[in-house]
Amino acid sequence: MNKKIIRNVLIYLILIVTVTVQQVCAVSQSGGIAGQMMLWGVNARAIGMGRMYLSIADDASTCYWNPANMNLVDRKSISSMYSSLLGLSQYTYFGFVYPTIGTESWGGAFIQLSSGEFDKRDSNGSPLGSFEVAHRALLLAYSRQLTDSLSFGTSFTSLSNTVDSIGDSAILCDIATYYRLQNIRMSGAVKNIISYSLGSLSKDNYPLIIKLGMSVYTLDDSLLIGIDMNRIENSSAIEWAIGGEYKLLERFFLRAGFNSGDLYGGIGVGYSDVKVDLALHMSEVANSYFFSINYAFGDSRIVERENVISANISKMESKIADAKYHEAGVAGDYILSLDAGNNAVRNKVRRLKKVTDIVDINAKSQEYSSDKVRELITYAVKEYLVEDETKAVNKLQYVLFLQPEHNSIAKDLLAYLLNTTDENKLAGSDIVGEKMKESLVNFYGSKYDEVIKNCDEVIQLDQNNIDAYLRKGSAYFMILQEEKAIESWQKVLEINPNMKEEIEKIIQNLKKTRATLSSDDDSGNDNNQETDNSETTIKGISIGTFKDERSAAKRVRELEKNNIPVEISKNNGMYRVYVNGKGKTFEELKSIFEELVNRNYKAYWMK
Predict the structure, then answer these.
(1) How would residue 524 be classed by pLDDT, with cut points 50, 70 and 90?
(2) What is the rounded distance in angstroms from the CA atom of residue 189 to the CA atom of residue 579?
């Protein structure tokens, strides 16, 4: 924490003490007012610091002191206190705080001050036994964290007072707030903002009480000092509480405080989940001791929240995978209620709601033509949800290529994406890449009709794809349909006139390849090379032709290392490396061919 801030706060606290010390010593304890018990304070730690606890309460007594502070209680907690006042009255407290996994906390408490065995006599002084005087309060508190530093809380108290068989009761309401600025804590509360009295024992009104508190941690959080101010309605006096706490060896605490002329002190020890505190109140009448125990249990709200968020993220992704977008959106909304700053989930939920609108509009009338269409649309939605509009658009375009009619879901999603997405984000293509790779495999396998089909699919998705037109032209050239090949290559030149030299090189290479394949065909029928892909015509797999035997042998050694059986044949001064199909089934040859392609070898069927 900034040293200048700490220094200014300390000076401020010292000035308050100096200016008000005379007034503080002259003010008596808050007595003689309705609901006096509710001002006495609970928890030995708080009392040990002179009842200075409004801004630092962080245990199960906070629902009494300041319900807004319950957001500081990170685990489920209970607290109890006991004190015997003057040996005649028993003062007890029991409270609990339950922090939810969200930003809310609930708490409750029971407080009792009872004095028994008072002599009871009639009007003549004759003894009639004994009677008891008791004050009891049942309290319910609620708090909500508004920001990381600010929270609000409120509490309702049912208060009852009995003397023998006569009694009255009241319903009271308090509101409070808490704010943290680095190591400085500030709180404010208004008690009895609502009060409603029942019964005839007392006609006193419950006064409005204004409470303000501020505290600061310093010396590496080893020293805590603070001040509280209480102002009671219709009273000119202000009650000040000044106190502090010093931490020793992480587990031991020394405390002291000053309030309305009385001195307070206390000690505490904490071990694991348990904290035990003892306090002493020194006054002119008598000294009083207070003993309390605080216990925290269960996982912290942060751990529980992270577990629930993680589970709901998995649930959301599972629903997306099942195309249950509405249910996925519900899970996403719940995540945001726990973690409002999760922008990744927020963006996905926003996109989910748009997808849900489109899908719900079409769902009743839409029937997917095939499982493949359903899979592609689901995949496109996934890509859109992770903000990859490029892949989403390509998948939807491919769906419309497969099923151009009666596909309103794909059409509406695609229209929305194209209208809302930056053109720069739509560059590139996943489907196009897959289809071009598939066309290359088919080209190496001499399946030129499949190459043409692949390229047509790519052109349907990307009308200016030069590679698709080049490969389509090459496929036509290999099956001797040169007019169609020239037509495809002419389209390339329309897109890029500088490709003329590149096309000429391709034609030269294709002529050599076509001549090589022709030499492997006993029938000499080039057209059969393309049109007949039956199993019975395959003689083997050609892997490469070399000018010298040494280069061919080197290729053989490479292939044999990968357990691919190859041979070398010599024809017209050239050395061919190939897989002999004799004695091998078509499935065996097909498996070898796929492995060669996967290893980036140019392989051709020998027919």
Answers:
(1) very low
(2) 89
Is the domain covering 3-120+129-298 a CATH 2.40.160.60 domain? Answer: yes
For the segment 116-121, the average pLDDT, to the nearest whole number, is 70
Task: Return the structure tokens found at 106.
Answer: 């609930």
pLDDT tens-digit map of 218-240: 988 899 999 999 999 888 788 89
Q: Which amino acid is at 563?
A: N
pLDDT over 70 at 426, yes or no:
no
DSSP 443: H
Q: How far is CA 170 from the centre of its chain?
A: 44
Token digits of residue 204: 């006193």
Side chain identity at residue 198, one-letter code = L
C-alpha dihedral (79, 84, 85, 88), degrees to nearest 10: 140
Report DSSP letters for 338-382, one per residue. Answer: H-TT-HHHHHHHHHHHHHHHHHHHHHTT---S-HHHHHHHHHHHH
Share the mean pLDDT of the chain.
Answer: 81
Alpha carbon 67 to chain centroid, angstroms: 27
Amino acid at 391: K
- At 346, list the tokens: 């927020």
Determine which helix (DSSP H) or strand (DSSP E) holds 414, and give its type and residue range.
Answer: helix 408-420
Whether the predicted pLDDT of 293 surpasses 90:
yes
Among 193, 185, 98, residue whose Cα is nearest residue 154:
193
Residue by residue, what is the 3-state secondary structure of 93-111?
Answer: EEEEEEECCCCEEEEEEEE
Spatial separation of the C-alpha atoms in residues 183 and 597, rounded to whole Å: 66
Q: What one-character-per-residue DSSP string does 135-190 give?
A: EEEEEEEEEEE-SSSEEEEEEEEEEEEEETTEEEEEEEEEEEEEEEETTEEEEEEE
**Burial class, 291, CB count within 10 angstroms (exposed 0-12 / middle 13-18 / buried 19+):** middle
Which residues lie across from 99 on neighbouring strands?
105
Task: For domain 534-607, give the CATH number.
Answer: 3.30.70.1070
Distance of CA 305 to the CA centre of its chain: 9
Which residues contact residue 605 at a Cβ distance below 8 angstroms, ignoring those fewer than 6 apart?
445, 446, 533, 538, 541, 542, 593
- Compute the distance between CA of residue 277 and CA of residue 258 in angstroms, rounded to an integer: 18
Contact between 187 and 179 (Cβ < 8 Å): yes
In angstroms, the CA 17 to CA 150 distance is 27
The CA distance from 265 to 448, in Å, is 94
Strand 209-218 relative to strand 223-232: parallel, antiparallel, unpaired? Answer: antiparallel
Enclosing H/E stretch for 500: helix 500-519
- Residue 573 pLDDT level (bands cut at 50, 70, 90): confident
Average pLDDT over residues 55-64: 94
Two tokens, residue 128: 């009639």
Is-contact 24 240, C-beta < 8 A? yes
C-beta separation of 380 from 412 below 8 A: no
Read off the tokens for 232.
Answer: 């009671």
Whether the Cβ atoms of residue 578 and residue 606 lie closer than 8 Å to each other: yes
Sign of the torsion formed by the C-alpha atoms of 479, 482, 486 and 487 = negative
Q: How far apart are CA 215 and CA 323, in angstroms?
A: 53
* Domain assignments of the chain as residue spans, ordered by start: 3-120+129-298, 303-421, 429-522, 534-607
**Could you tell me the fold of the domain covering 429-522?**
1.25.40
